Structures are given as C-alpha cells and as structure tokens.
Amino acid sequence: MSKLPPIIHPAALASLRANNDIIIIDASAGSKARYVEQHLAGALFADVNEDLANIGDFAKGGRHPLPDVKQFAQVLQKFGISKNSHVIVYDDKNGGNAAARLWWMLRAIGHEKVQVIDGGFQAAVKAGFPTTNKVATPRTADAYEADAWTLPLSDMAEVEAVAKTAGHLVIDVRDANRYAGLTEPIDTLAGHIPGAVNIPFTENLDAEGFFLPPEKLKAKYSKALANIKSENVIVHCGSGITACHTLLALDYAGLPMAKLYVGSWSEWSRNNKEMVFK
Questions:
Q1: pLDDT for residue 18
Q2: Residues sharing a CB contact under 8 Å with residue 127, sequence separation 6 or more, in sequence order
Q3: Tens digit of each residue's pLDDT (9 = 90 or more) over 59-94
Q4: Which one, of 49, 164, 145, lies nearest residue 97 by Cα?
Q5: Which residues have a catalytic role annotated?
C-alpha cells in the first residue's frame, strides 16, 4: 500500500465514515468544555496538556515536553487506537493547535496511518461533515506497543552549538512580532535564539486556511533550506506544538523530516541563554 499523504481534504472525510477503523481525534486547544459544545461526530478529545505532553519545570523541556513513549502508548490505548487504526486528527486552528503535534507523535512511534484535516474543524463543517455535542466513547484496544521516539529530535545544547554555524539552520516558526521581540503573550521574555531564522508556520497556509499545494511548499522550503542537509535543520516554536505544523508541511511537500526542538523558546528563554531582542 502506498504511503498516505499527511493531509486529508475535508471532502474526502464523508466516504471514510463507513470505515470502522477510522478514529477521529479533536486536538483543539482549550478545555474539554469547548469540545463538548461542538465537535465532529464521533471525534474523541485529546488534551494537549494531559495527553500530548508531560508538563513540569518549564526550564527543563519547555511548556509542552514530550511524554514518555510508554505514557503516550497508554493514551493511544485509551483512545482505542491500534497499530492498524487510520487516525484522522483536526483542531480549530488549521493544524496550529495540536493536530500537527499529535500527527508528529504518532509518526514518531512508527504509526503511518495518520492524517490531519486540511482547513481544520471549520473546513470540515463547511464541507458538510456532521457535528454533535455528544461525547464519543472510544472502542476497546489492546496495549499499543511503542519503545522510542524515532523521528529526529534536538535539544537546547545542540541548538546552542549549531544555531550560528554554517551548514546548519534553526527555524523559528512563531509569528514575526514574537520573533522580533516586539511582543510575547505567553513566555516570560521576548526575543529569539541567536542565528535562528523566522519562517512563521502560518505561511504554510493559503488565504483560506488550507495548506499550500505540495509543490509550492517544496519550492518554498527548498529555497529556505538552501541545500542544507535535513539532519542539520532544527525547527522550533514556543513550546514544541506549532513547530510540528512546519514539520507536517515539510512531509506534505515530500521533503526529509527536520529535527524538532521540543523545548523551544519556552525552555531557551528560562535558562539565561543568549537572546536577540530585535
């Protein structure tokens, strides 16, 4: 079977509903109360803080550090996800909340049958997918066997060592004002990592909130990466969530996977590291 594209268009969802092995996950940020108010029919709710992170000291791993792989495997079992499940993920911010993060986490344990809804919740509703306020009940599943994160990761020490080194590239996907240090709505200090370049994740989308076509994404990032080897490219954001949006875009474009720096600015800015404030 050929590899599934990481993005699924809303119009394709209706035909998949008859497939009993489809599991839909709502990964929108916020409380479960918002999910209960309205979500795609049959969708389960993934809490970014409880299910997709292991939150502790922000200075050690940032605001949303990855959970232990075994913890994540228990979350997947809770959702009724097995090795053969076709997982469809969405959020209400075009993949910028946590849909891309869950996609990355599943791919990072070797789960290939996972896709993110292009345009997110709003696009699926507009395409006629039914919604409900009924909390879905997950199916029963055996324990999900997973041993390690297998997609490339970086850490604060590596970022510090290579950010200003030729042949390496650190990409900050936050918006331009946060990168420039003009505003910081979440973390304690504004600015960016010295040597990092700014490519906001929102630039992966068109004016309607859909991902750019793969060929356009490929041209955009091929130019930005300038023949730098994928193992020398590190992507980060504020806490390792929206960085996954750009990793998703790279995969959609057919480009090699870059490294994810999960701790991101939330970790860097709390460790007395060198910063740029302009």
A1: 65
A2: 10, 11, 13, 14
A3: 999 999 999 999 999 999 999 999 999 999 999 999
A4: 49
A5: 237
- 38-56 residues labelled b (16+ CB within 10 A) or e (exposed): ebbebbbbbbbeebbbeee
Burial class, 5, CB count within 10 angstroms (exposed 0-12 / middle 13-18 / buried 19+): middle
Secondary structure of residue 108 in the 3-state scheme: helix
Distance CA 39, CA 157 (A): 40
**Phi, psi of 122, deg, nearest 5:** -60, -40
Count other Cβ atoms within 10 Å, centred on residue 2: 4
Residue type, 83: K
- All domains of the chain in start order, with CATH: 7-132 (3.40.250.10), 153-268 (3.40.250.10)
Comparing CA positions, the residue from 263, 238, 260, 241 lying closest to residue 187 is 238
Q: Which two tokens stand for residue 154?
A: 């970086």
Residue 230: CA atoms inside 13 Å, Cβ hemisphere, count? Answer: 14
Question: CA–CA separation, 102 vs 85, rounded Å?
Answer: 14
